[in-house]
Design brief:
- This protein is an alpha+beta fold.
- Helices cover 19% and strands 46% of the residues.
- It has 3 helices and 10 strands.
- The strands form 2 sheets. Strands 4, 5, 6, 7, 8, 9 and 10 form a 7-stranded mixed sheet that branches. The chain has a 3-stranded antiparallel sheet with strand order 1-2-3, with no helix packed on it.
- Strand 5 and strand 6 (65-69) form a beta hairpin.
- The radius of gyration is 18 Å and the shape is elongated.
Length: 178
Amino acid sequence: MTIETLSTRITYENPWTRVREDIIRRADGSQGLYGVVERSDFVVVVPVQDGRVTLVEQYRYPVRERLWEFVMGMWETRPGIDPAAIAAGELREETGLIAGRMTYAGEMFQGAGYCNQRGHVFLATELTRGETSREATEQDLICRDFSMAELEAMLRDGVIRDAMSMAAFGLLRLKGLV
């Protein structure tokens, strides 16, 4: 389906997010409106060592809850950086872990119906522990290792409700990486 953009305007912008409004024309000639959230690419990192997986728990302001999830992040001030570099940096920053091997599993869109943000999924293995280097927004972050059985129970029982973490684990499982 061909869609022509007739006009676009930025309705909101901050260092992490930009929202634009596009007036479009569809192939049948009818016009429509799209609100598009623009964000930099992000990474999801699944650290696994000796049958255990590392999760982080932090307060997520938009939903006003603490959530368990895999390491995630984006470098909005450095667009165009290799996702593997972002993954290694976020892993070390949030958990203090350094991966001897980072395996790229694939990509996904967070919400292609409203947002252009692309996520890159990595499996981190051959881990060594170092010091964390958390940002101010991560000062309440808790890092903990779980067995695969505990992780699967958390997913099954609704303890982990972060969609990107669920999708990343599913992708890794389907590819036989975990």
